[in-house]
Amino acid sequence: MKKCLVILASLMFVGFSAKAQKVEFEEFDLDNGLHVILHQDNKAPVVTIGVMYDVGGKDLGGSPAAPRTGFAHFFEHLLFEGTENIDRGEWFTIVSSNGGSNNANTSLDRTYYYEVFPSNNLELGLWMESERMLHPVIDQVGVDTQNEVVKEEKRLRYDNSPYGQFLFAVSENLFKVHPYKNSNIGEMADLDASTLQEFKDYFQTWYGPDNAALVVAGDIDSEKTKELIKQYFGEIPSRPAPKRNFPKEEPITEKIEAKFYDPNIQIPAIITAYRTPGFADRDSYILNMVSAYLSDGKTSKLYKKLVDEKKMALQAGAINVPQKDYSIYAVFGLPLGDTTLDDLLAEMDEEIAKMQNELISEKDFQKLQNKFENRFVNSNSSVQGIANSLVRYYLLYGDINLINNEIDIYRSITRQEIQDVVKKYLNPNQRVELEYLPEEKTEN
Which of 41, 191, 273, 352 is least enclosed, having the fewest CB within 10 Å? Predict the structure, then answer.
């Protein structure tokens, strides 16, 4: 009886937590096309101001005749250089001296800038983001400065980092015509060859209010905040949102074998990668559950079998890399001892085949449901996280209400659907098999 009461109390707590996390928000559009999302939470005197632009690494700079990679990521740096009213190098000083913090990040699909301030500095944050959108200083000094910064970042995070080229190596083999085949940070030769006018044109194309969404979350008065937003953003000129027309990828029907050499590693890796639907597709949600089943934690199937029990791998896992147009599903392993890449691949494939041939157990399925319930509760546990989710769901998914009901998608997924999706996408003839190898040293 006591055990039953404990289980019942746990279920009630999960249900209560999920319900208690419901996020209230309101949204409206300015006349210039800027979409605004407000979330009022007065429990702590903190506010997050964020602007997400519908531009990412897949949106190339330059011209159709000479397309340039890396522009979106470059702008993540460049737009901290300064504006007509913020001197060069003063952006971070202004933020920190007023008790705030700030950052930005870029994916292949979007770019996000945000500040976190004590709530009495809300107006300052709004002014700074309006400055970034209205009249940043884009000049040769800033371009040259940030070019060196980006080069150093590429060297540290990718070129000289063990397995740092993993995703790039997968993408360039998995995509043939879609710009997802390019790395988000771009090629340095492209940035070196770009003209100042190309950078100015890129800003004019992608950084208008029609191509962005503003989120303000935290300790605010909604009505006063609306007036401040209209004051600082309302006069920014509207610009037509750009149109995209990316080529479609042909389905992969025969296995693609590839090799990539990394000078920073000693232990090779085997990677199988599949082109899967964009993150808003139901099948992509199911593949998230497949990843959790295979490799989330030490009791997951791949880790327990290959690392813990058979001692064949130093590491093994699976990941669904979410993207808007196409996602990437990858399964990987690093062999241990005398284990060959072929042996490791066979064991990895065996686990996939099990999922294709039989339903996962009811016990494992319930564990998955609990994991995603907990993730949902945690995702809405901070104002900064809520701000990011609100603007992301609006801009990329086209459904801001996912912040409250995305968990219902996971709750509705069945064991049969999991089996069906694994059968549909994770087949040997639909993938890239990549041997990620140490670069062979040559004698001088």
Answer: 41
Positive or negative, the Cα torsion across 151, 156, 160, 164?
A: negative
CA 292 vs CA 191, 296, 303, 415: distances in Å = 38, 5, 11, 14
Write down how long the chain is.
Answer: 444
Q: Is 440 left (phi over 0), alpha (psi -120 to 50) or beta?
A: beta
Structure tokens at 290: 């497949």
Place of tokens 């993730």: 375
Q: What is the pLDDT of residue 379?
A: 87
| pLDDT confidence band for 103 (50 / 70 / 90) | very high
Residues 5-54 have pLDDT tens digits of 333 334 433 443 444 468 999 999 999 999 999 999 999 999 999 999 99
Q: Rounded to whole angstroms, how far apart are CA atoms 131 and 233?
A: 9
**Roughly what angle, to the nearest 10 degrees, separates helices 140-154 and 71-78?**
110
Pair type for strands 61-62 and 67-68:
antiparallel
Cα gap 102→207, rounded to integer Å: 19
Alpha carbon distance 142, 134 (integer Å)? 17
Taking the C-alpha atoms of residue 273 and residue 290, their distance in angstroms, rounded to an integer, is: 14
Cα distance between residue 26 and residue 411, in whole Å = 26
Would you state the structure tokens that stand for residue 406, as one six-digit string? Answer: 């995305």
pLDDT range class, residue 241, cuts 50, 70, 90:
confident
CA dihedral 305, 311, 312, 318 (to 10 degrees): 40
pTM for this predicted structure = 0.93
Tokens of 186: 């771009």
Supply the mean pLDDT for the chain: 93
